[in-house]
Amino acid sequence: MTTKTQAGVQTAPAPWPTVTTAELLAHPGNVRDAEVPADLLADVQAHGVQEPLYIVSTHGGVPQIIDGFQRLAAAVAAGLEAVPFTPRPVIRIDALTPHPANAREDLDINARFVESFRIEGCRIPVKIQRLEGGTIQINDGHRRYFGSQDAGLTHLPYEWEDDDRDAAGQFLDMITTSEQRKSLTVREMNQAMFSAAEAGAQVGRIAKAAGVRQKDVKAVVRVHSSEKLSEAVSSAGGSYEWTFDHMAALAEFADDADEFAAITEAATGRWADDHDVEWAITRARTRREKRERAATHRAELEAAGHKVRDAEELSDRATPVSKLSGVTDEEHAACKGQVWAIDAQRSDRYEPYCVSPVLYGHVTPEAAQTSAKDAESESGRAALAATKAGNIDWDAAEVIRRKWLADLIKSRTLPKNATNALIGHVNEALLSGTWGISDDLNKGPTTEILANLLGLNAQQAKSRSTFAQHVAKDPRRAPQLQFAAVAAVREKCATRSAWRTDSQQVPERRKPTAAWFRVLESLGYPLTLIERSVAEEKPYDPARREPRASLLGGGEPEAEPDAKQDDEEPEAEPTEDEGEGEQAAQDDAQPEQAVEAERADTEPEGAEPGAATEPDAPQAAEEPTTDTETA
Question: What angle, 0 to 180 degrees and rounded to 10, lies between the N-to-C axes of helices 274-303 and 244-252?
Fold first, then answer.
């Protein structure tokens, strides 16, 4: 804000507010017989008042000048209508001198810290002391001093150091102020953001001050504005702090009682952590997507004139057409007994049924009775429910795993041991020929997975021949990009049949998938329970739950190793290819060999060949801290 004078001179621009000279002169306490130096008057006449007056408001609301009597007199003499002021003492930055022996060597003047000064200014005063000779030295607040300079501020709030504070006391102050400073917890920060919003702060302003995304602020505000959501978040377990993304997901399921309960339950366990809540959210989204796909498919069937029935409406005689002997789906389409019901195992599409195979001549009475008896058995119903639940868990695990893979591939910097491991896995896949790369790399499903791992949009993913030009702009990512191609092959092979250990098991699919999962775990990927069962080649029970510690065999990604370990590659468990006629590599120093899968020529028709491995998953984005020293 600027205010024109009679001569067209302008006062200092924002951030200083202004007050009229008439309002100040209306109170006798602001009128002094102060002689205005000639150079000050000339400067004010030419440029307006550049230094704000320090003014406080008394109990009666009277603006009282604490510092700036001469500047007011000069403004009156120059005919200014208003002058800038500050409600607290400030000092020009160029009048200050840093302490020559400041204890903090690394001031960490990062972009977020500087940006906080641009948005809100410096709110915490620096502590200064006047030395002999007139030098004004900073004793506390060097980060604020340099950060404000980088932000383009001209003034800092200040307070004077005690006159009798000796040099030893100054250094002790540096210790105590550093040791006693404590950042806000995630929960405290979220509450502060919500309080700021309630007080009228706009989303953009809050996001910039907190160093978070605007959608994160919106998630916080939505959760804290709802009694139901706020209570759910506040009841989280002792080891879990709600992330912004998880809060947004919780709000997403606020109207779904079952899924909402499942997510909140995952967050309230004693050892609850991000993995537990992410798993619950992903399963909820998987189930919802299945329901939505099923609803879309049903609408399509009904629009085409097909008869659609709920599973509860079918009699015990009803049999999926796929289980009828000697009749195809196309042939059965003309049968008067055909209806469509939800696919019990997939639960996202409908499949054709014959309401009475005996009546319509598809099976013998004995076969029909046997089929009905099996359907009626409690064990049969339990097995079907377990398969359905297992498929949902498998699909949810796939979402989490591929997100981990995509984050890894997008990473520009990886620890040396992780980079070496990636290169090793790629070499193993390309040189040994044990992953079926040459057979499977260019197939359509692999291309689709690869495009997703590389983060390509629909337009970029149209032509496989252009993939390289879209992503090969940073040579540092070469190992990740090469690994992405190998990983896409292995992910194509990791289909639902890999987790089954019942009559539908496919060893040719399970064994290479198990090897793939063991490699991912060795690189830092935390296997979900269903993935662990495959990796350990054990049956999976969807109803079984284990403590968090038993699920996270991989743990968090490893930090950069010391010099002694730089040339070592992470260990991986050897592949157990029992009975398949292939000797798995046993060299622990070459983790890439642990992913050796069934050779392509040993896989039955329709089975998909193997794939590759994946490196240390990048750390999840940390919640923003509050190390900023803004006001």
Answer: 40
